Amino acid sequence: MNIGIIGSGKIGALVGRLWVHAGHDVRFSSRHPEQLAVWVNELGLHASVGTVAEAAAFGDVVLISVPYLALPELGKTLGEALKGKIVLETGNIYPARDGKAAQDVIDSGLGTGVWSSRYLPGTRLVRAFNTVWDQTLSKAIAEGKGRQIGIPLAGDDRDAVDTAARLVADAGFEPVIVGGLDQATRFDVGAAVYNTGMSAAEIRRTLNL
Fold it and tell me: What is the helix (H) or strand (E) element at residue 38, kind and residue range?
């Protein structure tokens, strides 16, 4: 599968690497793609570097992993390129960093799933990979315990969610399908399962799934 990574920071770089190792073709991008070239080239033929626009065009699936305050503008600039594509969105809302973009979500009580869909209209959106720190994921993979880490997912397009679940498994973790986008609030910042490193079974018990 062709996967575009928009935002090759801690989560984007880590998950993208794992997908390359699983045999997917991954194009990494950032605002400064030249800074990615050295380590991406070390990943081999399944990995490449491009601009944000090139990553959006390349991917059958696109992972967006940027600070939440960047999401509204990203949706405007890449709206047509992302339309109809499966988009996995990982951003978290921190008012001190993200300002109004985060505060609007918090004040609404609707959660990031609903708000992200407003910023990325026309995409087959799935909330994913937002609940666990990259260090926790890296440590679990290194120790052979990746399968014990649960990754909650929320999306309104069932085929898109199923694809996201397969990609979570390909990365070495266990997917937990929580529900539609309105259910993403159940694993947003501050939720009981957020940043806990819980197993999939523990997440399901905690959320009564």
Answer: helix 37-41
Q: How many domains does the chain have?
A: 1
Place of tokens 């999939």: 200
Phi-psi region for residue 80, left (φ > 0), alpha (ψ -120 to 50) or beta? alpha
Domain containing 48 equals 2-207
Query: Residue 92 maps to which CATH number?
Result: 3.40.50.720
Q: Residue 30's pLDDT is what?
A: 82
Identify the pLDDT of residue 32.
80
What single-letter DSSP state applies at residue 196? S
Residue 146's pLDDT is what? Answer: 82
pTM score, whole prediction: 0.93
Q: Which residue from 138, 19, 170 is spatially nearest to 3, judged by alpha carbons?
A: 19
Residues in contact with 150: Cβ distance below 8 Å, sequence separation at least 6, in sequence order? 173, 174, 175, 176, 193, 198, 199, 200, 201, 202, 203, 204
| CA 180 – CA 177 distance, rounded (Å) | 9
